[in-house]
Amino acid sequence: MSAVKRKPRQPVAGRKRLDIRDVAHHARVSIATVSRTINRVPTVDQELAKRVWKAIEELNYFPNTQARALVSGRSHLMGLLISEITNPFFPELIQGFEEIAVKNGYEILIGSTSYDLERMDTCIRRMLERNVDGVAVMTFGIEEPLLEEFASRNIPMVFVDSGPPSPLVSALVVNYRHGIREGVQHLAALGHRHLGFISGPLQQRSCQLRKAAFLDCCAEIGLKPLDAWLVEGDHTLEGGMRAMERLLAAKEHPTAVMCSNDMTAIGALRVLSHKGMNVPEDLSIIGFDDIHLAEFVHPPLTTVRMSRTDLARAAFEALRSHIEKPDQPALPSRYPVTTRLTVRQSTSYPPGVSISNGKRTVTRKRKTAAK
Amino acid sequence: MSAVKRKPRQPVAGRKRLDIRDVAHHARVSIATVSRTINRVPTVDQELAKRVWKAIEELNYFPNTQARALVSGRSHLMGLLISEITNPFFPELIQGFEEIAVKNGYEILIGSTSYDLERMDTCIRRMLERNVDGVAVMTFGIEEPLLEEFASRNIPMVFVDSGPPSPLVSALVVNYRHGIREGVQHLAALGHRHLGFISGPLQQRSCQLRKAAFLDCCAEIGLKPLDAWLVEGDHTLEGGMRAMERLLAAKEHPTAVMCSNDMTAIGALRVLSHKGMNVPEDLSIIGFDDIHLAEFVHPPLTTVRMSRTDLARAAFEALRSHIEKPDQPALPSRYPVTTRLTVRQSTSYPPGVSISNGKRTVTRKRKTAAK
DNA sequence: TTGAAAGCGCTAACAA
DNA sequence: TTGTTAGCGCTTTCAA
């Protein structure tokens, strides 16, 4: 009952921050009013609000996020689960996500799974412990049962291409077909009839979709790639090299190869260059993603662009609407993201077809002229 | 006085997590004992501890980080301030830092400044708001007065190459000279006398140091590069291209060029390839960093390796010792990080010197043979 | 419209 | 060795 005098706890040496009481005192109002002002509750008197803001300004106060999170049950933290931070696609995605998240008052917790179950588990645990308000699963199709942990706690998620159906889960639906069709038709228009495809790891849903889109788009125009021209890579540069070597080992090889991502394409380019083959004269290559680097390889890569900014924005918005309007009846649960071809210099006529179907065609220069 | 019955607040629909009380109840002990058990306070009875762990296991309980942070004053969050997440050097650094941080119970908050003062300010504010326990400033020498915000709050910091002197600040001291000397002497041993250098942005301390090390190492062996051979880049691929073009515009150009980072070197390689010049036959190139990509450009890049893992580990340890042993009298405040040359295929004899000083030398193949 | 006060889940001081 | 309890800084209910 009686207030026993205790020595006040000082958590870490001298690290005492200003708190809401200091502001309240300075502005001669109650802490409740300060809280309401900060949270822009409309019923606060103009005059008082002004005093509060002035005090905040003068003291350079900002609220303690942990306390806020503790009491409100919202951490303003979003988990961002990616495959591999060293794949250049992801930093670009992170950048986009971070930008929009920060602008809207969220912080992000990045988890890099490296396609490893145990790491995935650690990432999920970290996110659970930090109480993320939502999770963007940008691993492109490794949907683990592990993710049930989020679902069972009613933590919203957003997936790419897939994801368990649930009221709190949305999906970014990437229209691979659009860009891939442009790519296939671009090759066909150049005269290619022998197309190959280096896929990503086929246990990933997204990689299956890309490959299927490629095959369908070929079929649409009556093309049927040989089995030996369909090789599985792993979305790394090294994997791309290995895959291209396998492709070239076939008795006949295609005159154009589409790759499931740009790193794969860059690996393919390396192998061709090592073997003394010229791109696009001897073989055309198309990538996928349009990472920054794509423009700077030799030759600059023709590729299907999937915008990181679009992806990041859609993922963020999907999560935000679930978090902030949890009882909205009809939230969109599918967010479309499109893809489109960017033509650069890794594609041209197939060998020996530079004058075909009556059109006079200009042969490309071997070396790009220096500007 | 009287306990008024209130409707218990339910923060977010159904998101009720288990708390320490549930565990206490389940294990038939007090919450204090649960807390002590979790925090491994040695005075807990073995028997009780066992019961507590069992309860934790059975309930799949884990503590609420925000509550812990609030009461302990420690967020177990470290800020990681980098320049540009899309520069491949940084994801590799982040990966290393994240790995060691997570293993030790810390989470990281990444701030990408993009060399922009305003963004830097935002990053600092975010870190302050989230109450980071320490900050690793890996921007390589943009020390802003803004960082005073941390110092004035007694938040430990670690810098690369520099940083304001203070008891809570440590510095990673990179021995640029070691690797750069190896590079310069490697070139000299091959017969090069005309060396150029493409620096990074010279307002960065780290870039000044690299350039100075290069010049000193040249001087050591009696070499003095022409002014026209010392060009400033900006550590991007595009910047490297521009810089190399400027270098080639000089009346005479050097026979070997060292670059302040690998992206710059890769840009330089591009330009040379566009101009039809062969590396290393016409010009040798050395990079700096040894990013993953360095091995995969054409030709594979000879470069000075600065280990991201070493850097990350040193930064983490520096912060951790300040955070966890704040009153340790003699903490190391300088952590050495070394660099060393990795020889690949972008360096060779200067043109026309392939048979020199009596040694018979093998001319390199133009194309690397395919394996 | 405002203020007092009850917690959010936890740690740690103190009492037993 | 264990339990009781006062806060950590904030939001929000309730009463005024």
From TrEMBL, chains A, B:
Compositional bias of kind Basic residues: 361-371
Signal peptide per UniProt: none
Keywords in alphabetical order: DNA-binding, Transcription, Transcription regulation
Feature: compositional bias, Polar residues: 342-360
Chain positions covered by the region annotation Disordered: 342-371
CDD domains named among the record's database cross-references: HTH_LacI, PBP1_LacI_sugar_binding-like
Superkingdom classification of source: Bacteria
InterPro entries on file: HTH_LacI, LacI/GalR-like_sensor, Lambda_DNA-bd_dom_sf, Peripla_BP_I
Residue span(s) of domain HTH lacI-type: 20-72
GO molecular function list: DNA-binding transcription factor activity; transcription cis-regulatory region binding
Pfam families assigned: LacI, Peripla_BP_3
UniProt name for this protein: LacI family transcriptional regulator
